[in-house]
Amino acid sequence: MRHARTRFVALFLAPALALYGVFVLYPYAQGVVVSFTDWGGYGGERRFVGLANYAELLRDERFWAALGHNAVFLAVLPPVTLGIAVLLAALTAVAGGPGGRLGPVAGAGLYRAVFVMPHVLPLVMSLVLWQFVLTPRIGLLNGLLERAGLGGWAHAWLGEPGTARWAVLAVLVWGQVGFAYLLLLAAFGAVPAECLEAAQLDGAGRVRVVRSILLPMTVRTVRAVGVFLGMLALDMFVAVAILTPDGGPSGSTEVVATYMQRLAFSAGRFGYSATIGVALTVLTLAFALVTFRVTRRERVEY
Amino acid sequence: MSAPTRHRRVAGQGAAHLALAGWAALAAFPVAWSVVGSLKSDAEIFASPWSLPAAPRWDNYVRAWREAGIGRFFANTVVVVGGALALTLALGAMAAYVLARFSFRLNRTVRTVFLAGMVFPVFLAIVPLFVVVDALGLLGTQAGLILVLAAYGLPFTVFFLTGFFSTLPGSVAEAALLDGCGHAGAFFRVMLPMALPGLASVAVFDFLGLWNGYLLPLVLNPDPERYVLAQGLASLAVTQGYAADYSALFAGLVLTMAPVLVVYVLLHRRLRGLSLGALR
Fold first, then answer.
1. Of the partner residues B121, B184, B276, the one whose CB lies closest to the CB of residue A257
2. Phi and psi of B211, rounded to 5°?
3. pLDDT digit string (tens) for A253-276?
4. How far does the CA of residue B71 sit from the closest CA of chain A (Å)?
5. Closest chain A residue to the Cα of B23, Cα to Cα
6. Which residues contact B21 (CB under 8 A, 6 or more apart)?
7. Do B49 and A102 make contact, defined as CB atoms within 8 angstroms?
8. Which residues of chain B lie closer than 8 angstroms to A108, CB-CB?
9. Are the C-beta atoms of residues B60 and B250 closer than 8 Å to each other?
10. How many CB atoms lie within 10 A of CB B272?
11. What whole-number distance in Å separates Cα of residue A91 and Cα of residue B18?
12. H-type alpha helices, chain A
């Protein structure tokens, strides 16, 4: 019996681990090795340089500036996106229902189908579309502001250091709300109806049901989505690279990932780029671990 | 129920619909805009971004399909996404089940190792990955792309499904074991069917991620004949630079979105029944 159990565990884990080991773990491990070399890229010799790259990192002002931008994204993206998604998911899940009972709002399916659209759009393409919207002269947003008599509010949204970072952030929030919403709605839906009915019989209003029943019972999902969004904020590569090529006006949107890419593929410094990758990985891991520690709760089984 | 309560409820529902409809407009706008844009001429797109097309230009679609090769990219994407999705779901569900329901010595370690895959910036791995895929003779092949995409889909799939399996009641699987089912039998006959809502959710996310995947195909799939849609569209948008054919770009975008929306609407009925069912 005991033997069969061990064999089962090994048999079920082995294929996933093998695939993951060859194509994910091994290349990352190689990346770490490379971070101690002066490797220039695809061909070429690699010479071990010890901790020289890491010493350079500590003095690299561009790196610290980029990391600061990631920190701003990290502070804003997860709470704003989760806030909007929780609000929308709660409204969809409990704002309606027949005869005063809790239930999904009328047209819940339609809202759901529409909300997921930004997430369904190919990322590269939705970014190209938003670039159109935010372009100064022919852009839709400035056109809209002028029509509304707010021409004074028009900006070269992606071209001014004061607005570029927030414009990129807004596009990202827009794109991620649907993702968070879908996961939250599925989690809310998995909460047994009896719990909600019992709360309602005890006189809890809808807001109270969301705050005291739905959110605590789905805290694992909320946390997972938050961590996922945090990791996105620490990456930001595709959004920044497409919306603001060259790191944005005065480097105002440069993030660690775009700086890494510039070092690896434009400056031919793959070794140093890998060093920054290692640093970013450590920071991201620390963020995930801290988040899980701080928000740890007892597992709810139902 | 008293009248004031009912009034308050109706007002509350009105406010709810207002908020939901507001976000719906924001979410749907770029899709609507690209559909309109796909039927305009380039001159119309630039001169009057707000107007409807004077006459719908269906030839934008013909140009996108033929010259931009959307048809070919589409077929490539179906093969690659289908293969990677099946592989990542099958292996991910098996691993997640074991991690969620069995305690063994390396359980925590294996979980952490999978979790770590979500936090590494892909850029750190991209050049060594290129070397590995090349050494295995899989560079530029669809099999290679399928294996790599499935491998990079595993962390999220395992993470999500581990959480899901651990919330399922354990008593059912134990009963199946007592009935002489065996561990594999308990998994395939009892737990997997119970996990269908979770599997369906993660499948939708994996599917969308794969369909939109850009960086890995960009590096590992250099042959334009084998481009997937994201690559093809990006080359239409970016590589052509100043000569970009924006109306064909919009048409290509609509062609790329349409099947995803269809798949989503088909899946969505099942999903809604499974996930919102508990609230009814």
1. B121
2. -60, -35
3. 899 988 988 888 788 888 998 899
4. 16
5. A115
6. none
7. no
8. 272, 276
9. yes
10. 18
11. 11
12. 2-20, 26-34, 52-59, 61-94, 108-115, 117-120, 123-134, 140-147, 161-190, 193-201, 206-209, 215-217, 219-233, 237-243, 256-261, 270-294
| Mean pLDDT taken over chain A | 85
Give the distance from residue A133's alpha carbon to the nearest chain B alpha carbon, in angstroms. Answer: 9
Mean pLDDT of A102-113: 83
pLDDT at B114: 92
Sign of CA dihedral A230, A231, A235, A239: negative
Rounded CA-CA distance B42/A229 in Å is 36
User: From the CA of B208, how many Å to the nearest CA of chain A?
Assistant: 6
- Asked if A254 and A247 count as a contact pair (C-beta separation under 8 A), the reply is yes
Size of interface A-B (CB pairs under 8 A): 295
* Residue B71 CB neighbour total at 10 angstroms: 12
How far apart CA B276 and CA A165 sit, in angstroms, is 37
**Which DSSP state fits A96?**
B
Q: Which of residues 3-42 of B touch A (CB under 8 A)?
A: 5-6, 9, 12-13, 16-17, 19-20, 23-24, 26-28, 30-31, 33-34
Chain-chain contact of B278 with A94 (C-beta, under 8 angstroms): no
Kindly indicate the confidence band of residue B237, based on its pLDDT and cuts at 50, 70 and 90: low
- In this prediction, residue B212 carries a pLDDT of 76
pLDDT at B52 exceeding the cut of 70: yes
Domains of chain A, by residue range, sit at: 1-29, 35-294
Q: Say what the pLDDT of residue A77 is.
A: 96
Distance, in Å, from the CA atom of A24 to the CA atom of A80, rounded to the nearest integer, reads: 31
Domain A35-294 has CATH 3.40.50.1110: no
Are the CB atoms for A127 and A253 separated by under 8 Å?
no
Q: Which residues of A touch B74 (CB under 8 A)?
A: none
Task: Give the H or E element holding residue B10.
Answer: helix B3-37
CB contact under 8 A, B237 and A125: yes
Is pTM beyond 0.90? Reply is no
Q: Three-class SS of residue A42?
A: coil
Query: What is the spatial distance between Cα A57 and Cα B108, in angstroms, rounded to a whole number?
Result: 32
Q: Share the mean pLDDT of chain B.
A: 82
Interchain contact, A281 vs B27, CB within 8 Å: no
Query: How far does the CA of residue A274 sit from the closest CA of chain B (Å)?
Result: 6
The 3-state DSSP class for residue A277 equals helix
